[in-house]
Structure formats: C-alpha cells, structure tokens
Design goal:
By secondary structure, the chain is an alpha+beta fold. Helix content is about 50%, strand content about 15%. The strands form 2 sheets. Strands 1-3-2 form a 3-stranded antiparallel beta sheet. A 3-stranded antiparallel beta sheet has the order 4-6-5, with helices on both faces. GO terms for molecular function: RNA binding.
C-alpha cells in the first residue's frame, strides 16, 4: 500500500520520476509465443554451374603404351656373336638343343651356329619382350663356352644378379713349373673335393681351365669364393680355408 501511494504521489507530482515496469512472463508463455510464430522459409535459387573455360580447354589425358624391344632401337635389329673355342665345339653339338630351346622359345631370340666362322650368332626379334634378353642370352652362351654346364649357365637367363668373373692364377701370385701344378692341385683337391666344398658353401659354380678360373654367382658369393681360392693359391692349407669359409658363410646366412 505504501508503494502504490508513493507511485501515485510521484505521478501527481509532475511525472519526474516515472517508473516503467516491464511485463513479466513465465517460461510457458514464452514457449507458446514462439510456437505461435510462423516459421520463415528461405527460398534458394538453383543456378546451374557452368564449367570454367580453362578446364573445358584442357585436352584429354594421354595414355602411352610401353615400347617394345625393337621399338626402343628404332626398329633396328641387334646382333651378338660368341666365338666357339676348338675344345668346346664337340660339347656344343651334343647339347645344342638344350641351348637352342630356352633362347628361342622363352627369351624370343633367334640363334644359329655359323659353321664357317665357328661362332654362335644371336639376333633380336620383333616379338622380343625385353631389350636385355639379347645380352642375357649372349652371357648364357658365353658361360657355356667357358666350361660351365648348361644346367648351371641357364641361371643367367632367369636371374638378373648373376654374372661370371674370371681371373688367372698369375694375377694372384707368379708361379711356374711344379709350383703352378701344386697350386692347381690345391684348388681342385682330391677328386675335386675342395672345389665342390667351396661351390656348395658359397652357392657358386667354379671352372678351373688350366691357369684360368671362372666363377659364376652373385656379387657377394663370388667375393667369398674368390677369397678362398686366392688363399689356396698363396699356399694356405685346405683345412684352414675350410674353417675360415665356414665362419664367413655363417655370417652371410645371419645377414640375410
């Protein structure tokens, strides 16, 4: 009652201190008012997007097929010639079909024997799948001429990391007469025992042709076999070479 009397007096007194009281609404009344309001819908105009002139001007992505072997050499035929030593002429005639079949049918390389020049001639064909096939076949035939068996030399066609390394005994140590003969005997061993042991331990193939030594295998294996052969040439006994070879091969097996 006192508050109403005071407000009345203030109104009567000229309205200098007028109080404006805001209406108080409950939460339920606010929710009813929000629900009564009509939702405003926004109309979105769909404008078709036009491709930019830069993307429309680009040509289609080209697709290039891989070149064939004869196309890489501009259609020119490549040749390889391998000389046949006199002492390998008869063995070549015996196993000619074993050499001819993988070279011609699998590697797609033409091969023939030139009887007049005593050379094996290799030629690439239009359907040769790879450029390196010609060189692989040349290495295969050359390995046979050095004295390797066809079964061992054919690995050159199937694996890329194999190659042949050759050296002479005089490259390691200058030996003459009986000293040279004893060195060759140490390399071979009794019945080829030492040579076979080195081959099996290092996974290589070794050919001892007089004073020349040829090793067929991978780079790491050839190095181990060559070190063992050099130790034998320098005069190390076979037992010492075996023990050292056993330790090196065990280390290689752990690495891989």
């Amino acid at each position: 009652m006192t508050r109403r009397i005071r407000r009345g007096k203030e109104k009567e007194g000229g309205g200098q201190n007028l109080l404006t009281l805001r209406p108080r609404f409950q939460k339920s009344d606010q929710l009813k008012m929000q629900s009564n309001e009509a939702p405003v819908s926004m109309e979105v105009e769909a404008v078709p997007c036009k491709p930019s002139s830069a993307s429309a001007a680009l040509p289609p992505k080209p697709s290039f097929e891989p070149l064939k072997a004869h196309e890489m050499s501009d259609g020119r035929v490549q040749f390889r010639k391998v000389s046949v030593p006199p002492h390998r002429y008869s063995p070549l005639k015996k196993v000619w079909m074993e050499i001819y079949t993988p070279v011609y049918e699998q590697m797609k390389i033409d091969i023939r024997m030139n009887l007049k020049g005593r050379k094996v001639e290799l030629k690439s064909r239009a359907d040769t799948p790879d450029v390196s096939n010609l060189q692989k076949c040349s290495d295969f035939v050359q390995a046979f001429m050095l004295g390797f068996d066809v079964i061992d030399a054919i690995a050159l066609l199937r694996m890329d990391e194999l190659y042949v390394e050759s050296f002479e005994i005089k490259d390691v140590k200058t030996l003459r007469g009986e000293h040279l003969s004893r060195a060759i005997g140490r390399l071979s061993g009794k019945g080829g025992k030492t040579k076979f042991a080195i081959e099996n331990a290092t996974k290589t193939r070794i050919v001892i042709a007089d004073t020349k030594i040829h090793i067929l295998g991978s780079f790491a294996n050839i190095k181990v076999a060559r070190d063992s052969l050099c130790s034998l040439i320098l005069g190390s006994p076979a037992g010492k070479v075996y023990s050292k070879l056993r330790a090196v091969t065990a280390r290689l097996a752990e690495r891989f």
